[in-house]
């Protein structure tokens, strides 16, 4: 989201006041040295969260950042966000300093990546910035009693982070100079029957833009249809992203 003059940001918040919730941080948990799960509590009785829902947090006087909810509990009026502490970007200072008891404003946005209700199989590809989305979609898949699997390219220090989540997918080391290369190698090593069984799946590709591009090209070469692929690049080296 582009920078806004502080007066315009303040005005915008008044205009969309029905989407703004006062929340309190009730729990923080480190999934790895730079992945932080934060639970917020607020009066969410009318929020109508769905899997993939995004929220905005004001990270300074002039900027907001989008984050995908990793979970929500309507009964207890809580929601969760997994922050990637990438040590760069306007959101890092806010995320690294959030602690239990903090109070802040949370703006409810739409879901840019939506769960395909018509699909019986769901495949997830991404990186650290994708964890919240896939944690949310994975819970939906389990509720629907359908199938999912996938692969995330993660930094070495984050490879075990999925063990802290209810997310049953594989991980491979990321390579900054070869986006999606290790994930594609992982795909090539799958048994041919897997491709036959998953040829009609929905493929969700998010995270680094070049990785999404390379993985999408690979899927199309393997015969996956254009309509089966959902993409949402979150960041790229040299560009200001969601962090």
UniProtKB/TrEMBL annotation:
Residues 18-126 form the FAD-binding FR-type domain. It comes from the Bacteria. Transmembrane segments: none annotated. This is FAD-binding FR-type domain-containing protein. It comes from Pedobacter jeongneungensis.
